[in-house]
Design a protein that fits this description.
Blueprint: E1 15-18, E2 24-26, H1 29-38, E3 40-44, H2 51-60, E4 79-82, E5 88-94, H3 95-101, H4 104-128, H5 135-138, E6 148-156, E7 165-168, E8 174-179, E9 184-188, E10 191-194, E11 201-206, H6 208-213, E12 226-228, E13 239-246, E14 252-256, E15 262-267, H7 268-280
Parallel strand pairs: 1-3
Antiparallel strand pairs: 1-2, 3-11, 4-5, 5-6, 6-13, 7-12, 8-11, 8-13, 9-10, 9-12, 14-15
């Protein structure tokens, strides 16, 4: 049974930034420990990242005459998509389609999020103790600039009474989320609590694939359970920018221990299928 919404508590998330050396940096070891346990933290927006331009692009997509609404679907996960049993409608594209369909400024924005994703991923693997020579194989190529990335622009259709987004964990490695309005909640100690809107910061989530590849390492990360509350017609339209860092969807994930020995593996397709079965059971 899903917990009832809790609106009088807000999660105190750890804060991090990207240092001048291009590394993920927390204020203290305790903040890092809490981020790893929760599976979520705030990241200060880098100065060179034009989030407002990306937000404006996302807002334009709600106009019925926007040409971007006519982008064709590539399978079940790409294109202009309305989700079933949730209020989300989104334009979702994988990295290799950004240059074809997104304006140059938005394609550049996506590549900058790629850089952030690799920085976060590298710090997770560094903290895990997995030897650096194993990172590319463990991450399905993502840590070395490969893998798969999605850049999604989301809004919530309040004409549907469904939950905004049902409770779930993300399947991939790292999610970068621009939280522009209240409604996002995470599960802590069996209770859902609010993630506050924090201007000038992005929310970074850890997903199931990252939990999987660090399972036998010196430091496993948690995959955060989260949801979005149902958005009401009287509320301002809730927009979001969501970047997903994933392994190659046709590839393999490997579990290494701190000595570099393989402890297990799974095809990405099989792992994601198992997660989907758990989510819909």
């Amino acid at each position: 049974m899903t917990s009832q919404p809790t609106r009088d508590r807000a999660a105190e998330l750890p804060n991090a930034c990207i240092s001048s050396r291009g590394q993920l940096q927390f204020a203290s070891p305790e903040d890092l420990d809490r981020a790893w346990d929760l599976g979520i933290f705030y990241l200060k927006v880098p100065d060179e990242l034009d989030v407002e331009a990306a937000r404006e692009f996302g807002r334009e997509l709600t106009k019925p005459d926007s040409g971007y609404r006519n982008i064709p679907n590539y399978g079940d996960f790409e294109g202009f998509i309305a989700l079933e049993n949730n209020q989300q409608t989104k334009l979702a594209l994988r990295r290799h389609h950004w240059g074809q369909h997104y304006p140059p400024t938005i394609a550049k924005f996506g590549r900058q999020l790629d850089d952030i994703g690799v920085i976060v991923m590298s710090e997770v693997l560094r903290q895990s103790g997995i030897p650096e020579s194993c990172w590319a194989q463990a991450s399905g190529g993502y840590s070395s600039g490969g893998g798969t990335a999605f850049l999604n622009f989301v809004h919530y259709d309040t004409t549907h009474p469904n939950q905004g987004l049902r409770p779930h964990t993300d399947y991939g490695f790292v999610t970068i989320l621009d939280v522009m309005a209240p409604g996002l909640q995470i599960q802590v100690g069996g209770e859902f609590i609010d993630v506050a809107v924090k201007p000038g910061f992005l929310a970074i989530h850890f997903g199931e694939a990252l939990n999987f590849i660090t399972r036998y390492s010196g430091r496993q990360v948690g995959a955060v359970v989260h949801r979005v509350l149902s958005q009401k017609s009287e509320d301002p339209v809730r927009h979001g920018i969501v970047y997903f860092a994933n392994p190659d969807l046709d590839g393999e994930l490997w579990q290494f221990d701190p000595t570099g020995e393989v402890q297990g593996s799974s095809s990405v397709a099989n792992l994601f299928a198992e997660l989907e079965q758990q989510l819909t059971a």
